[in-house]
Specification:
Length: about 260
Amino acid sequence: MTASGLFASPDGDRISVSQKSFAVLECVGGADRPLTTSELAVLLDMPKPTVHRIVHQLDVDGLLLQEAGGRGYVPGPRLFNFALNVVQSSVRQGSRRAVLERLSEATRETCNFGLISGGALLYADRVEASWPFGLRFSVGSRVPLHCTSMGKLLLAHQPRRRRQHLLAMSDLHAYTDNTITDIEKLEEHFAEIRAGGFSIDNQEFLAGVICVAVPVRDARGRVCAALAVAAPQVRMPLSLAREHIPALAKAAEEISAGWVVEDEG
C-alpha cells in the first residue's frame, strides 16, 4: 500500500503522527519476523527519518522492542499487555469463557488459556478445577516459556528468529530435574511438538504437576494462543493427559471458529 492509500484521508488530508505510529505497530505486529526501520519505511512507504523517529519513541515507550543482537523490532511488553487486555475482555464476555468452563467440567481439571507476553507465558484466562487443592495461578500471572506446556507450544510455532529472541530473553532456569535447558535439545523438542500438534509439561516447571496443551489459531490459521489442562500427577498421569488431547483440540477449534466469526463480522 502506498502513502496515498495509507497515509491520506478520503478528503486528501495527511494523517496524524498517532495514525502513523499505529500503522508501524500494526506492521510489526503482523510480521512473522523482526522488521528494521528500513524495511518498515519501504513497507509503509514512509520517509525513513520519520519511521526512525516513530520507532525510537515506541521503543522508549515499551511498545516495540529491538531484537537481541539485531537491528529488527518486535512487539514490546506494553503492546502485548494491550493485546492481552483486549483478549481478556472478549474472553470474559464471549464464548471462549464458556468453552473453558465446558472443558474443565469434562476433564474435571484446571483449564488455562495463554499468550506470549513480554518474553513470558501469560495466563489470559483460566477455569479452576473444583478440587480443594488446585493449582493457584491467577489470570495475569506470568510463567516461563521454556518449561511449560503452553509456553513450549507457542515457542515451537514462532518463526525461528523470533523464537531465538524469546529464548535469549530467558535465563532457561532449571526449575526441576526434568527442565530442558539446552538450546539444541529444546529445538528438537519443538520439532516434535510441531509434528505432534500438542505439548506436554512433564513436571518441568513444578514437580508433581503435569500439563498438556494444544494450539489455538486465529482467522488466518496462525497459532496465536494455547489451551491447556493442568493437574497434579497423582490425578493426571501422562497417560491420562494424552487422553485429554482430543477434548482439548475440539475446544481449541471452537475458540478458533469464534475468532473467525468475530473477525469476519
